[in-house]
Amino acid sequence: MTNQLLVKAPFKADHVGSFLRPERLKKARAQFEEKEITLELLTQIENEEIIKLVEEQKEAGLLSITDGEFRRKWWHFDFLGGLDGVEFYEPDKGLSFKGVQTKAHGIKVTGKIGFSTHYMIEHFKFLKEVAGDAVVKFTIPSPNMLYYRAAFEEGVYNNDEEIFADLITAYQGFIQALYDEGCRYLQIDDTSWATSFSEEGIASLKEKGLSLEQALSFSARAINESISKRPADMLVTMHICRGNFRSTYITSGSYELVSETIFGGLDVDGLFLEFDDDRSGGFEPLRHVNRKDLYIVLGLITSKHGELEEEDLVKARIEEASKYVPIEQLCLSPQCGFSSTEEGNLLTEDEQWAKIRHVVKIAQDVWK
């Protein structure tokens, strides 16, 4: 799909979306949880911190502006729990990352999945208002995240076909509503693809009764049909992640096993990909990129620690990737957000902004 926004975005220096929560915001959220402050006061503090964040992004040289996901505890559950038929609940344990576990929190499908309204529409409207003339990017989890992360009450759905039919319709409704409020740059975040990067992950699919081929078919269909009705001037990118919680991860593996589907079978305008360390494999899978209008955003700068990557090495890796995809179709970003959950990664805010400025500086040098 071609549209005029592709001339501008994904930008040569872009970012995944989430930023470290300021201490003032963390304190306010804790006070709200303890019923020490009102929702109105919490919202006021969120608004003030988002306004500051917008200016910080502009000062750092970013051309796409997000709200840092400052109103969210989780990058995915907060959105998914706002759909019709989905509720938050507390499972027995949290999600397991390498050496650490998250808080016990989850979502459960208790009725038919749908979209009638969603509280994050108001989040977008506020961001657009305070961002001025800047391009506003809004981030939401992929529909695949509900399928793979939600618990389903017995009797609500008879089969996967019914689930995906309702899920896709709900996403189409939300995306249109977001567009109607002025959104022209949407990013879909998805960790489910990483399940197919390793033999361990493929074994977990088989436990769900899915072959690798079935899982890829379901995942691609969910993405493509969810965005199929978007207007021509709405840019949609997708970020594929291997997990990001307090600087740890869930899985490893190359894109190779799923490369034909990801690079040749998705109708997105751009892909944000992790390439910050050996866990992601090499650039060879990019040989399956078969569209001149598909932008590949190389996540070569890590958000997991504060040490800056050697500039010449990053430039050399961009050149290496250009052997598979024309450099005009390449962009640069951190490999993931800095705070996929409210806890955030293990680096300071100063280090975070140094990373962003690093991305901008290198991009300016490479794409003069």
UniProtKB/TrEMBL annotation:
Residues forming coiled coils: none
One GO term (biological process): methylation
Domain Cobalamin-independent methionine synthase MetE C-terminal/archaeal: 15-363
Molecular functions (GO terms): 5-methyltetrahydropteroyltriglutamate-homocysteine S-methyltransferase activity
Pfam families: Meth_synt_2 (PF01717)
InterPro entries found in the cross-reference section: Met_Synth_C/arc, UROD/MetE-like_sf
Entries under Gene3D superfamilies matching the protein: 3.20.20.210
EC number(s) recorded for this UniProt protein: 2.1.1.14
Keyword annotations of the record: Methyltransferase, Transferase
Top-tier EC class: transferase
Descriptive protein name: 5-methyltetrahydropteroyltriglutamate--homocysteine S-methyltransferase
Organism: Psychrobacillus faecigallinarum
